[in-house]
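Researcher: We're reviewing a set of sequences before deciding which ones to prioritize for further study. For each one, I'd like a predicted 3D structure that I can look through quickly. This is Glyoxalase. If possible, include the structure in C-alpha cell form so it fits the rest of the review sheet.
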Amino acid sequence: MSAPSVLHTRLESRQDAKFMAKALRAALAGHGIDLPHGHALDLVAAQFGAKDWNVLAAQVPEERAAGPVSFRTTAPILRIFDEAKALDFYVGFLGFTLDWEHRFAPGLPLYAQVSRAGLVLHLSGHHGDATPGSTVFVAMEGVRAYNAELLAKQNPNMRPGVEALPWGQQMEVTDPFGNRIRFCEQRHGGG
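Model: Here's the predicted structure for Glyoxalase, in C-alpha cell form for your review sheet.
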C-alpha cells in the first residue's frame, strides 16, 4: 500500500485550514458522524503532510496579509557567551533543534539558529548583536505540557513553574547568560 498523498495546495493562512476543518465536520455530520473540531484540524493537517494541527499552524501565517507588506518569522537574537552552555540549554534542556551555525572565520564567535514548533531563536556570541539579560515573550499552546517535559529532565539549575496571570498561564526560563523567555498560553479573548 502506498503512502497517502499530500495535497499540492499551499495554505495562505490558518483561517483556510480552519475553514477546511469546519467543512469536513459538516460533511461528516451529514453522514451521522460527530467529529470534534480538534480532530478535524488534525485530519486537515495530515492532508498537508503535518504531524498534527500544532505543527501545521506553526508553518502557515495567522491570516492573509492585508496589503503588500507581510511578515513571516520573528527571530529574536539572544546574546550568548559560552557555546557549549548555550547548546546544552537550548537544545538539551528546552528541546530545540540546532538548525544551522555560522562563523565568519575559524575561532570567531558563533551565530546559530535554533527552533522548535514554529519558534525560531538566533543565538549570537558577537558583541553588539544583542543585549545580555533580554526578555522574549512567546505566545504558545500547551504551556503545562511543556512545563512537565522540562521538569521531567530534572535539571538542577532550572525548575520552572507555571504562574496564573491575568493574561494567561506563563512559564519563565532563564538561560545561562541571563536572557529570559516567557512562554505564555494566553487567555482566549485577552492578551
